[in-house]
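Treating backbone geometry as a discrete language has practical consequences that deserve illustration. Part of our work consisted of pairing the sequence of a single chain with a tokenised description of its backbone. We regard such an encoding as a compact summary of how the chain folds. The amino acid sequence and the backbone structure tokens for this protein are reproduced below.
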Amino acid sequence: MARIIEPDLNFVKGVIDAGGDTLKKCYQCATCAVVCPLSTNENPFPRKQMILAQWGMKEQIARDPSIWLCHQCSDCTAYCPRGARPGDVLAAIRSMAIREYAEPKILWSLYNNPAGLIVLFGVALVVVLAAILAANHGMPELEVPVKFSHGLFHGFLPVLYVDAIFLPVAGFAALIAIRGIANMWKQFTTGLDIPEAYKPTTMEMITRYIIPTFKEILDHERFKKCGVNYERFNGHRYLLYAFIVLFVVTNIVFIGADFLGFHTPWPLWNPVKIFANLGAVILIYGSVLLIQNRKAREAEGNLSGSYADWFLLYLILFIGITGLGAEILRILGLRLAYAVYIFHLMCVFVLFLGLPFSKFAHLLYRSTVMVYDRYVTDVRARMETSAPAATVVEEAAAAGEESSEEAAAEEGQQEAQ
């Protein structure tokens, strides 16, 4: 019986509008799947994903974890005879996937549209100013030279009010992120009828798949394989390490100031302070490397411009510059320190809130897919050693694809009748 494919033209248009404007240039030569250093014999990409996108098969590509395993290293683009830029197409598809996982979607629109920049920073400014007014019962006195005690800036914005800004924002972002990850995992595992004997316990899931994935991410093993764009490996790794350092330092300061009474600022020779400044420097350096790398790739024609990418890179850069700058200006006793510190808090606010909505969401979803990939690969290997027949994972995946295609065919026939 002939199968009728009803393409989702809105999906195709969305991919093109989101940065995959070269989608139609692909003529399925398979060069991309051959040269991709991350593509495997068992799971080749991005050729399959390119044709699914061309055909507008939204549901099939949404269930495909390979769109997240792509690290957009541009090897495929460098060797594509048609200039189709498969990496850009998959990046556009990932952006649309983030939109599906995000709620409310208006926030995704704000983070992926230049017009949203004014709204996001406007809201951040209102929140920060409200905290300052609440802390001082009105407009504070901007002391010169800058003095501080029991807070970052004395009589300006105590740590308690900083916590009042960011704890709710971080909590909200975390809830949305957890919901998105749960939906993604359910989407990928639906139809995988794995026998109970092969289903891991929670502890096994952590020790067997999550921890090894975390080690792989720390080492950036997949980025190392991207030969054409190896320089991106360094900048990306520096950013990751900087975020880890600053995350640890922030939590130490949070516990020390709020629960143990060791109020900031701490001396410059304090180990925590040293690590914080080191993290800021690494953050700035990594951001500059990635910005330079992206400009070079665009100039060479190996990458198309993406607002979401540029927005995140410059946001991270400004966080590092304003954080370090506020400290230096405060030490010098300049009133400008107050304005720079306010802008720093605004940038951090926008970054925190954007975790499930911006390009920053790759940190969540790509990591989740890497865990899933390790999980399915391991189960497949274990089952192959115990049974010569096709694995349950493969059979379930194939059955899921066939059932969805048959349902689409039946729906198309009913519409035709």
In short: The chain has a mean pLDDT of 84. The chain has two domains: 9-101, 105-363. The chain is about 70% helix and 0% strand.
